[in-house]
Amino acid sequence: MTESGNAAVYFVDRHMAEGRADKTAFREATGDQRELSFAALADQSGCVATALGRAGITRDSRALMLVLDQIEFPAIFWGSLKAGVIPVPLNTLLATSVYDAILNDSRATCLFVSEELWPVIQPAAVVSPYLTRIVVIGGAAPEGTQAYDDFMDGCGPAAVVDASPDDVAFWLYSSGSTGQPKGVRHVHGAIRATSDTYGAQVLGIEENDVIYSAAKLFFAYGMGNGMSFPLAVGATAILFDGRPTPDGVTDILATGKPTIFCGVPTLYAAMVAHLEKEGRPEIALRRCISAGEALPGEIGRKWQEIWGTDILDGVGSTEMLHIFLSNAPGDVVYGTSGRAVPGYEVRLVDENSQDVGQGGIGELLVRGASAADGYWNQRDKSRSTFEGEWTRTGDKYERAEDGRFIYCGRTDDMFKVSGIWVSPFEVEQALISHPAVLEAAVVAARDDKGLEKPKAYIVLQEGSEAGGLEQELKEYVKEKVGKWKYPRWVEFAADLPKTATGKIQRFKLRDVD
Q1: Could you count the other beta carbons within 10 Å of the beta carbon of residue 283?
Q2: What is the C-alpha to C-alpha distance for residues 513 and 280, in angstroms, rounded to an integer?
Q3: What is the pLDDT of residue 179?
Q4: In angstroms, how far is the first alpha carbon of the chain from the final one?
Q5: CA 466 remoteness from chain centre
């Protein structure tokens, strides 16, 4: 097969020549448990490309995808790439006002939407001055839309448009943990770069693996786990269109029998609590990974005790598409983010952009082939984030003596107590190691003298009582991480504000104060 810079050729069409036509590429975990073979993916994605052209959706136009994790997702995504149309997968848990902002910002001319999600985007979609085609997946099409089956009817596969590895392939809108989402533009070559680096050299995914990612496909981390990594090697991915609860995920592990599981710290914490009471299914997980935010060491150790399998905690970002700093198989140290993934370089810098030495705390910068092409329509933000070959992450880290990196918090989350930097994450890890604590978030609050001190928000384990626990937790933190770092205030909560991808939104807790 002739080499092409269009990522769809490598990830989809080459499998026909390599003998995987009849193998299952995607399998749904619920409902009719539909499957999509590699041949069907090649055929259906080609038909999507034809249908887009027939609908007048031209090259470089944006096609928004408000699509659940179902087999239509990969067909639409790769079909768009084949047509030269830019797919824009969207977070499926946003409010109508945010979708309205994205519709106007992206100026998308096409929208694919799962039937279940139509009510939330409908008020914004029907008044969009840019949309010319709305395609609804599942059931009858509401007025002003077209059913997916009708959109595809009579369309045969189209030729794949030629593309350079540097052509923009798709956008992802950032999770917006500190504000409105930003459109992040990714090129064709970036998808292959993440598969050749983290996918091949850290995750070590193989053709006979079955992978289940609790992180959804709209999320950069989930897109790699649940779509590009398995397609790179011809493995099978399990798709689940619902919310990943501890009991639901456990059922998928038991019935789907994946060999690789990809989660996020908040889910791992909830699953540990669930499995300690209910027991685990008898399956063999070969590999488990985590990203989204740093994994508390206590959760990793408890998971290893339950499964006999380590969690490879890593760091990635929407801007870098996947993980670039990670623990590795046989080289796991909980409480650290490991070392740079092969193919990436990282460094720490201070407020003056000068390199920080060992033991110092600085902002993490990274460079590698998967870096985004910039933000859409936000030139100033692009210039401050993408500095030549280096991308600013906004995360504060410390480099340990052995070369591993220790997460300290987001740049905006760090604060000083008595002139010494305090890492909210370090205090949170100490709190989570207490047997009564399920989750913790630490932010800066001001005392009666106007000085910043740590304040903790605590979610308790089921069955634990708050009575008398406040002082106990303060003393516990003093012994664990230092007397000046303990939370001066402890507030108990039913839950913590999070993004759809599981990141704690500390800025909302600061707003409370």
Answers
A1: 14
A2: 40
A3: 55
A4: 60
A5: 33
Closest CA to 425 of 294, 246, 315, 305: 294
* Mean pLDDT along residues 344-348: 97
* pLDDT tens readout for residues 313-337: 999 999 999 999 999 999 999 999 9
How far apart (Å, rounded) are the C-alpha atoms in residues 421 and 361? 9
Is 319 within 8 Å of 385 (Cβ atoms)? yes
Nearest Cα neighbor of 224 from 187, 190, 252, 265 is 190
Contact 473, 460 (CB under 8 A): no
Beta-carbon-side half-sphere exposure of residue 209 (alpha carbons within 13 Å): 29
| pLDDT at residue 1 is higher than 60 | no
Structure tokens at 221: 């981390």
* Residue 472 one-letter amino acid: E
Tokens (6 digits) for 239: 């798709």
Per-residue confidence (pLDDT) for residue 67, from 0 to 100: 98
What are the structure tokens assigned to 442, written together?
């630490």
Burial per residue of 363-394, b for 16 or more beta-carbon CB atoms within 10 angstroms, e otherwise:
bbbbbbbbbbbbbbeeeeebeebbeeebbbbb
For residues 359 and 337, what is the distance between their CA atoms, to the nearest angstrom?
A: 15
CA–CA distance, 74 with 48 (Å, rounded to integer): 11
List 439's β-bridge partners, or say none.
Answer: 459
Q: In the structure, what pLDDT confidence band is assigned to residue 239 with cuts at 50, 70 and 90?
A: very high
Please tell me the distance from the alpha carbon of residue 409 to that of residue 426, in angstroms, as a whole number: 8
C-alpha–C-alpha distance, residues 358 and 356, integer Å: 7
User: How many CB atoms within 10 Å of residue 481?
Assistant: 17
Q: Residue 120, Cβ neighbours under 10 Å: how many? A: 18
Bridge partner list, 311: 288
Other beta carbons within 10 Å of 6: 22
Quick check: 178 and 508 in contact, CB under 8 A?
Answer: no
Distances in Å between the alpha carbon of 451 and those of 184, 444, 448, 487, 488?
A: 38, 9, 8, 13, 12
Three-point CA angle 83, 233, 195, nearest 5°: 70
Q: Which two tokens stand for residue 1?
A: 């097969």
Residue 498 reports pLDDT greater than 70 = yes
Which one, of 307, 310, 305, 302, lies nearest residue 327 by Cα? 310
Q: What H or E segment, with its residue span, contains residue 141? A: none
- Looking at the predicted structure, is the pLDDT value of residue 260 above 80? yes
pTM here is 0.86
- CA 166 distance to own-chain centroid: 23
pLDDT digits (tens, 9 = 90+) for 427-437: 998 899 999 99
Beta strand residue intervals within 117-223, DSSP E = 133-137, 146-147, 168-173, 183-187, 210-213
Residue 417, both tokens: 């107590």
Among residues 187, 192, 194, 193, the alpha carbon closest in space to that of 172 is found at 187
